[in-house]
Amino acid sequence: MTEDNKNLVYVSDDIVNTGIGVVIDVQNIYKYFGDLKVLSGISCAIKKGEKVAIIGPSGSGKSTLLRCMNLLEEPTYGEVWLDASIMTPVDSYLHKSILVKSNTYKKSIVAEIKSKLGKDEKEKIKYDDAIKLVDEDTLENLSDKVLTQIKTGDLLKKREGGEFARAVKAYDVRYGVNINKARQRVGMVFQHFNLFNNLTILQNMILSPVQLKLKSKEEATDKALKLLERIGLLDKKDEYPSKLSGGQKQRVAIARALVMDPEVMLFDEPTSALDPEMVGEVLSLIKDLADEGMTMVIVTHEMGFAKEVANRVLFLDGGNIVEENTPEELFNNPKNERLKDFLSKVL
Fold it and tell me: pLDDT tens-digit profile of 134-167?
C-alpha cells in the first residue's frame, strides 16, 4: 500500500446485513505485480441477476479484476466477498475493529496522547491508562489521525500482538469460506477455452463435478448431455477438442462451466480468440443465459453486445473504475473525458 493509497474505506462489520442481494462484493482491491500496480482500490458489488459488462483499453485491469473475483488472482490488498462469506484473507486495513487492536495503533495512540498532554515521550504509560487521560472527542480525533497514518503508510507489521491476531482469526472464523467450495459457485469462461486436449468433449465436461464429488458420474453425464444438446453439439460428445472450431470450443467451455450449476458466471473476453464469423454463436449462447436470469460479469470488447445484454457497464482505465452507468447512459451520454475518447475509437 504505497503513499498514493488515500482510499480510506472500511468494510462495515455488519456487511452480512448491509449487502442484501449482493452476490459478489469487491472491497477496495489493489493488485500489484512486482512494482506494477494493476488495480488501484477498486470497489464494486454484483447483485443477484445482474449482467455487468466491464470495458476499457488493453492493460486497464479488466481481466485482473475478473480473475480476482474468484481468486484466480489474489488481491495484494482488499477483500472479495461471496454473499456473506469472505473469500480472500482478511485485510486488516479494512476493519477498524481489528486495526485498533494492533500494537502499532496502541503505541501510536500513547505517543499522541503524551505529546498532546506535554508529557515526556520517554515516560512509560500503558495504553489502557493513556486513553483514560483524554476525553472521548479527543480520543476519537487522535484515533482517526493514527488510523489514517497506519493505512496510508502501510505500517502494520507481521506480528501485531496476541489481541490483534485473535481478532483477525475470529473474523476469519466468522466469515471465512473454503475457497475451493466458493469457486464451485462461480463459473469462469476464459479467452482460450482451456479444454483438455487429451479428453473427449464429454470427459472435459464431467471431469470437475465428478472429481470434486459434486455429482455422481451418472448425474454429471446426464447434465452434460442435456447441455450439449442445448448448444447443438451433442453429436460431438466423443470428439476431441482439436476436431472442433473455435466457436464450438467456446460453447463447450461455457457448457462445461454450467455443469457445475454455478450461481454466477464470469466471462473473460469470451470472443477475443475467435474468428469473426464464429463470434455470433457464442454471444447468442451468453445472451440466452442472460435472458434466463443468470448473474454474470463479462469482460468484453464487443460494445454492441454490452449495450444489448448488460444492465450495468463499468469502464476501467489505469486500474480504476472511471465511470459506471446503465448502457444507455454510458454509451450515449458519457461524462468522463477518457471514456469519451475511448468510445470515439471503438464505436
Answer: 999 999 999 999 999 999 899 999 999 999 999 9
pLDDT per residue over 97-110, tens digit each? Answer: 999 999 999 999 99
| CA 164 – CA 145 distance, rounded (Å) | 19
| Residues pairing with 324 in the sheet | 314
Question: How many residues are there in the chain?
Answer: 347
Read off φ and ψ for residue 182, nearest 5 degrees.
-65, -40
Residue 79 grid coordinates: 477483500
> What is the pairing mode between strands 85-86 and 77-82?
antiparallel
Dihedral angle, C-alpha 107, 109, 113, 114, nearest 10 °: 10
Residue 327, sorted as left (phi over 0), alpha (psi -120 to 50) or beta, turns out to be alpha
Place of cell 486436449: 197
What is the longest distance spanned by two Cα atoms in the chain?
A: 83
**Grid cell for residue 272:** 477475443
The Cβ-side half-sphere exposure at 13, using a 13 Å CA radius, reads: 11
- Answer for the pair 75, 328: CB distance below 8 angstroms, yes or no: no
Comparison of pLDDT for 67 and 275, the residue scoring more: 67
Give the pTM. Answer: 0.88
186: which 3 cell numbers?
462461480
For residue range 164-217, what is the model confidence (pLDDT) as tens digits? 999 999 999 999 999 888 888 999 999 888 899 999 999 999 999 999 888 999
Q: What phi, psi does 191 have (nearest 5°)?
A: -65, -40
Cell (9 digits) for 158: 507481521
